[in-house]
Specification:
mainly alpha
Length: 91
Amino acid sequence: MSVYDFLYYIILPVLAISTLLIFIRFLIGPSLSDRVVALDLLLTTGIGIITIYSIYTNQPAFLDIAMIMALIAFLGTVAFSYYLDKREKNE
C-alpha cells in the first residue's frame, strides 16, 4: 500500500464522515457559538480534503487555495470572537 492509496482509501473517507458529522452538529447546534465552531471545523476539514487532493493529483496550486481558505477561516473566527466580546459588554 503506497502513501497515495492510504490517502485515497483511508484518509479521505474519514474526512468525509467527519464532514457529515460536523454538518449535523452545525444544523442542531443549540447556540450561535456552537454553530460558528462547527463552521470553522467544516472549513478546516475542507482544507484537509483540498490538501489531500492536491497531494494525490500532484498539483501544488491547490495548496495556495487551502492557505487562502485557512486565512479566511481564521479571520472569520477572530471577527466572531470580537462580535461576542462587544455583545457581552453591551449586556
